[in-house]
Amino acid sequence: MNITYKINEIVDVEQFINLLNNTTLGERRPVNDYNCIQGMLKNSNLIISAWVQDQLVGIARSVTDFNYACYLSDLAIDEKYQRFGMGKQLITLTQAQLGPRCKITLLAAPAAREYYKHIGFTQNEYCWTLDRHQTVTSLANK
């Protein structure tokens, strides 16, 4: 299998949606909201993609300052192409674009928790999220 990896190659919205639908991430991403997916791609500043000919088969989509923090928003590999080391290669290529002090952070899907541990990520119990419909509460109200 001949896989080509590309850095910041333009990824079409439909290609990305098709890839997500061929992974478990499709269940947790807004694949029916074209504008949201388009914004996800447009506003990512580091995208490493994997291709078999002209078919997108893997992606590592990140938002980063390249020096201190890199949030790996999506690591998606088409289910037909999993278990060939593509995820590790996408992460390795992502790291290669970052400065020496830059740390990759991600939120693991339930099915991927063991994968990240297996490839060397350290689990951090201090991650917090705030959904858009939630509001920040005042300490005075506590």
From TrEMBL:
- Residues forming the N-acetyltransferase domain are 3-142
Keywords per UniProt: Acyltransferase, Transferase
Alphabetically, the GO molecular function entries are: acyltransferase activity
Looking up CDD domains in the UniProt record yields: NAT_SF
**Top-level division of the source organism's lineage:** Bacteria
Stored InterPro entries: Acetyltransferase_Butenolide, Acyl_CoA_acyltransferase, GNAT_dom
Enumerate the Pfam families for this protein: Acetyltransf_10
- How far does the signal peptide extend, from start to end residue? none
Keyword Transferase, does the record have it?
A: yes
Instruction: State if Transport is listed as a keyword.
Output: no
What is the E.C. number?
2.3.1.-
Return the protein name: GNAT family N-acetyltransferase
* Organism per entry: Zooshikella harenae
Which lineage ranks, top first, belong to the organism behind this chain? Bacteria, Pseudomonadati, Pseudomonadota, Gammaproteobacteria, Oceanospirillales
